[in-house]
Design brief:
By secondary structure, the chain is an alpha/beta fold. It contains twelve helices and eight strands. It has an eight-stranded mixed beta sheet with strand order 3-2-4-1-5-6-7-8, sandwiched between helices. The longest helix has 18 residues. Bound molecules: guanosine-5'-diphosphate and magnesium ion. The site of magnesium ion has 5 residues, from helix 6.
């Protein structure tokens, strides 16, 4: 009954569209949904579960988390006496939701008080600047007064890239020359935002310096200096992870978490080679909320992380 879709409220349209894209992209290659196709007509015996475990590993889920998923699935299948493929898919989705749901904590930005400072953290190329651009538009459209801070002072191109996003979205960008002190740029932006009554400062940071220790020290300094304007700042320290890094993303997350204490994780490039399974491992190993997922380079290619939706995309079920 195609007419039914006409009754769907307009605001639902982009959400389901996003889900379709997420599902399509996660299932390209070796997504778990595809992996379950061989289940058709077979009994859910230990051999089948072992094959599924292999598929989980191929989808970037770590070994311990894969075992946890298989164990959860085995229990659910026994308890609910599941024998068919549709039942198995639904059981898999439910098992994945169990792992992901505790991390599904969308960011809430208060209005009308002091500016909320969000630091975007992550290695070069992970998608920090692009995610800032996407978020700038999103929050501006929600009526927030948004300002950007060009805290990646290591490369001139990074400053220009942020300025371009600022122009495109008509939001001001606080920047200094390349080589300037990143903490000073963020400090200035937060002060300006406070003076001018802005709601949100999205601050870029460098993803690479001469060495790893230097990078972590610089980030710690940005955090410290921001705290001089507002002891509660930065209110969000968001790690941006590239899904195509696979299991390497785990080490990155652990390192940044140790250095600055992350308060949020967003994952980009789920439209690329990444299978997204790494989020299951992260959910299992790190108690840090998941905020956003990105599936493309355009401003609209970003959505709030949704555990049901993500699990369904992986398991090949309806959300
Ligand atoms: N396909 C795809 N590309 C992305 C996504 N997010 C960022 N990119 C691209 O990844 C590249 C690096 O992004 P950038 O924001 O400059 O990373 P940064 O170095 O962390 O600031 C750019 O070419 C972006 O357009 C995404 O969700 N999907
Ligand atoms: Mg950048």
């Amino acid at each position: 009954m195609p007419r039914m879709t006409d009754a769907t409220p307009a605001r639902e349209a982009p959400r389901s569209g996003f889900f379709q894209r997420l599902k399509q992209k996660l299932n390209r290659g070796l997504g778990l949904g595809v992996a379950l196709d061989w289940l058709a007509g077979r009994k859910l015996d230990p051999a089948v579960l072992a094959e599924l475990e292999d598929q989980l590993l191929l989808a970037d889920v770590g070994i311990e988390t894969s075992e946890r998923i298989i164990e959860g699935l085995r229990r659910r299948i026994g308890r609910e006496a599941i024998v068919d493929e549709a039942g198995a898919r639904a059981a898999l989705a439910a098992t994945l939701v169990e792992i992901l749901q505790p991390r599904a904590q969308p960011l809430v930005i208060p209005r009308g008080g002091k500016p909320f400072l969000m630091l975007m953290i992550g290695v070069n190329g992970s998608g920090k600047t692009t995610t800032i651009g996407k978020l700038a538009r999103r929050y501006r459209d929600e009526g927030l007064k948004v300002m950007l801070a060009a805290g990646d002072t290591y490369r001139a191109a990074a400053i220009e890239q942020l300025q371009a996003w600022g122009e495109r979205n008509s939001v001001p960008v606080i920047a200094q020359q390349p080589g300037a002190d990143s903490a000073a740029v963020v400090f200035d932006a937060l002060q300006a935002a406070t003076a001018r009554g802005y709601d949100l400062v999205l601050a870029d940071t460098a993803g690479r310096l001469q060495n790893q220790a230097g990078l972590m020290q610089e980030l710690a300094k940005v955090v410290r200096v921001a705290g001089r304007v507002d002891p509660a700042a930065p209110h969000e320290k968001m790690l941006v992870l590239d899904a195509s890094l696979g299991q390497n993303a785990i080490n990155q997350a652990l390192q940044f978490h140790q250095a600055v204490g992350l308060t949020g994780i967003s994952m980009t490039k789920l439209d690329g080679g990444g299978k997204g399974g790494v989020l299951l491992t992260l959910a299992d190993r790190l108690d840090v909320p998941f905020r956003y997922v990105g599936v493309g380079e355009d401003a609209a290619d970003l959505d709030v992380f949704d555990a049901q939706q993500f699990a369904a995309a992986l398991a090949g079920t309806a959300p």
